[in-house]
Structure formats: structure tokens, C-alpha cells
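Project channel, design review

CF: Before we commit to the Euhalothece natronophila Z-M001 constructs, I'd like one complete example in the thread so the newer folks can see what an input/output pair looks like. Taking Transcriptional repressor.
RD: sounds good, go ahead.
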Amino acid sequence: MKAQRNRSQQRIIKLLYEVNKPLSAQEIYMELRQRNQALGLATVYRALDSLKLEGAVQARTLPTGESLYESIERDQHYLTCLNCGASVPIKECPVHQLEEQLETSHKFQVFYHSLEFFGLCAKCQAFTNGS
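CF: and here is what came back for Transcriptional repressor:
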């Protein structure tokens, strides 16, 4: 059952759906300002927290500590380089079946899942190997 969303939450959901890429809270704040739908930064953070608890948005934390938010409808996963911070989206999602099994076996309602692999990209590998 979806919770009643306030106007701030609705604006953020609509924005994340339209831009179709992960955004930080600051980027959401700036993008809404550019669209003449300004919200305070604290309001953006509160709305994002509520939307995460509802399962309407997913957040992933970069190695820098910054969180990026995106619509759960995207179901996007990443390879993230620990050296340069580049994130490469991967198309495959090998955990859908596991998610369904966990929901059944643990009677746990899963809103979304996050799958991210951390390591070194080819460019950073070449640099660290001296090539």
C-alpha cells in the first residue's frame, strides 16, 4: 500500500523518473530550482528519507560517501572504481529470483535491492600496473 505523498515527494519522484539517471540530493535540489519548483535542501533530504522508507526511491552510496538516488523502476546496478570513482551501469540483474525466494522464505516485503561491485576499472588497473 502506497503512503500518501506530499507535494515535495511527488516532485522528486517525477524528477527522478524524468531524468532517468541517479542524482544526489544537491543535484535534485538544483534541478528543481531550474524547473521553478524550488524546495529547500532540508526538505529535499526529508522527502528522500520518507521515499526511501516507502520503497519509492533507492539510494546507493559512492566510495566518497555521497548518496545517489534513483527511481526503483530503473533497477540499475553498477561496477564502481574505487580509484577514480567511475560507475559503469551493468544491464544484467542476477538477483530477481533470489529476491522472490527471500520474500517467500522470510515473509519479508522487498521494496528494492541494490547490487554494486567495487574494484578497479581498466584505466586505473593500467595506471597502477605501470602500463
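RD: helpful, thanks. Helices lie at 7-19, 25-34, 41-54, 96-106, 122-128.
CF: The radius of gyration is 17 Å.
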